[in-house]
Amino acid sequence: METNSKKYNKWIVILSVAIPVVVAILFGVKLDVELPVFLPPIYATINALTAVVLIAAVLSVKRGNIKAHEKLMKLAIAFSAIFLVLYVAYHMTSNSTKFEGEGVIAYVYYAILISHILLSIAVIPFVLITFVRGITNNIELHKKIARITFPLWLYVAVSGVVVYVMISPYY
């Protein structure tokens, strides 16, 4: 078990650093490719589905259905990974859309956007640690960190949808 933990810990650190760094690098890459679909509503929908799946996973574990909880959490991670791939693909093939709202609404938009971006980076190690503690059957520590991970991850998923809704008139 100790060797597995160390192996997982290395991967948690590597992924927690590599994912934001690779995303930042890829944002600087512009491909002259036109995608066959407009991705923002698709990846916003995936964020919404992630939020729904996270809530369903918490409800299932509270009802004692551990198998459903595990499957739903794997689905939430898969949705998050798909979101990330589509999000990066969009930004590599399209110019960024500028928010044109003014006044209080602009402050609200940027507050949500900045908190969404910062927490989407911060939540990565929390998700990975929580997942590893679950799959290695370290249930007490899993529960302890899940109480932090769940609201962070849920906020990231929901705020991503809110950011999309607020900027969608400007696409």
TrEMBL record:
InterPro entries: DUF420. Keywords: Membrane, Transmembrane, Transmembrane helix. It comes from the Bacteria. The keyword Transmembrane applies. It holds the Pfam family DUF420. The chain crosses the membrane at residues 12-29, 41-60, 72-92, 104-131, 152-170. This is DUF420 domain-containing protein.
